[in-house]
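input
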Amino acid sequence: KKGGIRCLMKLLKQKDSSCPSIKAQGAAIRALTSLAITSAAIAKEMVSEGYVRELAKLLEVGSSDVRLASALAIGSLSSYIDLKKELCETGCITSLTNMLESKEASHHEAATQALSTLLLANRNRKEFGTDERGILRLVRLIDPRRSSLVAKRLPMSALLAFLSATSAHRKRIMSGSFLSSTSTQLEKLAG
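output
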């Protein structure tokens, strides 16, 4: 197992002229994620090998297909409570939030799926809440006038996870500037 994990990790980390193809990177991400979801022990080993940090990097700078595979992997790995903190520390919350601006519905779906699980952890909610654009992006995805390619349950799930925050978070959400920009968006939905 260890040799296979290291080999696949090496494939993800190559940055020189022998850089792997996009398909190879995507396949490596899917294989590593499949291994990780079979056992918490394997997932922890992969974290120690730098898999989560590498996913966060690829989420930021990879090709469209690699970013999608990375977001799906983060969504799968975020089911482990121990990894939620590690995932937050990599900065992937910001990258996933930025994916909500993508033109591709598959990116919206992968990002909202990952966020809905990650936002169950208080620290991740705090990070997500620092930039209200993420919340507004989720609200926009619920808009029925937008493409129906994205399941509305995913952005709703992410918003509900975020809103399950402590009362201090709720007070911030209901504060002036955020409430006015969100209510405008919600009025458009109702109208």
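quick obs: The chain has a mean pLDDT of 79.
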